[in-house]
Amino acid sequence: HWSVAARxxxxxxxFTLFVCHEYGQIISGRDWASLICERFPDDGSAIERGNxxxxxxxxxxxxxxxxxxxxxxxxxxxxxxxxxQEYAEMVDADKIVAILKDDYFRxxxxxxxxxxxxxxxxxxxxxxxxxxxxxxxxQGVIDLIAFTEDGIYIADYKxxxxxxxxxxxxxxxxxxxxxxxxxxxxxxxxx
Length: 191
Hints:
By secondary structure, this protein is of the alpha+beta class. It has six helices and seven strands; from the N terminus they run E-E-E-E-H-H-H-H-E-H-E-E-H. It has helices at 46-59, 67-79, 85-90, 93-100, 124-127, 164-186; strands at residues 2-10, 13-17, 20-22, 25-27, 111-123, 135-147, 152-159. Strands 2-1-7-6-5 form a five-stranded antiparallel sheet. A two-stranded antiparallel sheet has the order 3-4. The two termini are 24 Å apart. 30% of the residues are buried.
C-alpha cells in the first residue's frame, strides 16, 4: 500500500485522519487526504519500493501533476544522478499523479517543507505507553509539512502490502509523535 498519513483536530477532538485509495477508489471523510493506500504485491520489495516513492516525493514538483510532467521529472532525476534508475523503474507515474492531484498537495497559500529531521523531548508515556512520568528524546524525519494560515498539516509516506486499517493501527503512535514534535518545534497547531 502507498500511504500518506496525518493527525489532526476538529471540533476539539483529536483524530488521525486517513483516506484510502484502494483499487482506484478514494474513500474520505475529509476534504483533504492524509492517507492514500495503493495495493502492491507483497514480494519482499516493499522497503526498496518505499525508498523509491519517498525519493520521488522528496524531489517532484507538486505544481506539475500531469503524467507527462511526472515522467519527465523522474527521467531528469535519474539522468542528473538524483535518483537510481532502479528506483525510477519501481515507481508508477499514475500513482504519483493521483497523489499530486489530491487536495493535500493543492492547498492555497500552503508552504511545503520536505524531509524535515527533528529531535524533541516528549513525555515517555506518549512514546511508550505505560512507561511512567519520565521524558524521552525522540528523533525522526517528517516526510512533509504543509504550513497554512490556520496551522500545519503533516504527512508520512508508507509502502506496504497491508491494508489501510492495519497501517492506521501500526502508525498511529508515530503520527502522534510527529504531530507533538511539529507543534512543539513550530509553535503552530497540527490540523
